[in-house]
Amino acid sequence: HTHPLSEVFVFARGERERQFAIDLGASWSGKIEEHSPEQLSAIIDTTPVWKPVLHSLENLVAGGKLVANAISKENSDIDSLLSLDYQSHLWLEKEIKSVANVTREDVAGFLSVASSLGIEAEVTEYGLEEANAALSEIRRGGGKGAKVLKIADR
Hints:
This protein has helices at 15-23, 51-58, 86-90, 104-116, 131-140; strands at residues 9-11, 28-30, 40-45, 60-68, 95-98, 123-127, 146-150. 8% of the residues are buried. The chain folds into 2 domains: 9-120, NAD(P)-binding Rossmann-like Domain (Rossmann fold, 3-Layer(aba) Sandwich), CATH 3.40.50; 122-154, no CATH class. The protein is built from 5 helices and 7 strands. By secondary structure, it is an alpha/beta fold.
């Protein structure tokens, strides 16, 4: 593990997801709109909406970095960006960065670290014909862990 003393802070919309984070070893877990117990140096946003971007920026230290790791962002709450305030969200050299693609090497590196730490994912498999059900469950915030589409039997 490259940063063994790093604390993990998790923001999640549902109580079940917040408790799951604590069960997995997070130091703290709170609602997306909450302030973390301390300012953070980096936050990864994996949500498909905009409000968490603003809340994340409020939780960063000076020079902190927000990484948006979502395939796309919906427009359902895009108006929340109108409340972007320079002093609260950007001042003191905060950064926003997007990640376009995760590479095979990124995944291999992550799996190596996860394996060395004994981390095991909780996975739910779906057949390809169940893809819409899996996406609906993710959108509703249902279930724990990863969702995997099984394309073919091997």
